Amino acid sequence: MKCPGCEGEAFVYATRDVSLNTGNPADVVPDVKGDHCIRCGAVIMTAGTAGQYPEKAEALENGGVPVR
C-alpha cells in the first residue's frame, strides 16, 4: 500500500488525533483510527472512522457544536 500523500510505504495502525489543514493548530479531529503514514502523517481511515470524520470536522468548523 502506498500513501496517497507522499507515496511512502511505512504505516502504523493506530488511533491518533489528526490536525486539519485550516491554519489553526488547535483544529484537531480526535480519535482517528486507521493506517497513519510515518513519513507525512496522512491517514487511511477504517470504515467506521471514515463515517465519523466528516461529522467531527464539521463540528470544529461550527465552533464545536455537533451538526445533526
Task: Summarize the structure in words.
By secondary structure, the protein is of the alpha+beta class. It has one domain (1-54): Roll (Ubiquitin-like (UB roll)), CATH 3.10.20. Helix content is 22%, strand content 32%. The protein is built from 1 helix and 3 strands. It has one helix spanning 47-61; strands spanning 11-19, 28-37, 43-45. Strand 1 and strand 2 (28-37) form a beta hairpin.
Large-scale geometry: globular
Largest sheet: 3 strands, antiparallel
* Biggest sheet, spatial arrangement of strands: 1-2-3
Structural class: alpha+beta
> Which CATH class is shown?
Alpha Beta
The CATH topology is given as Ubiquitin-like (UB roll)
Percentage of residues assigned to helices: 10-25%
**Low confidence ranges:** none
By oligomeric state, this entry counts as: single chain
Radius of gyration: 12 Å
What's the tally of helices?
A: 1
Number of separate strands: 3
Distance between the termini: 34 Å
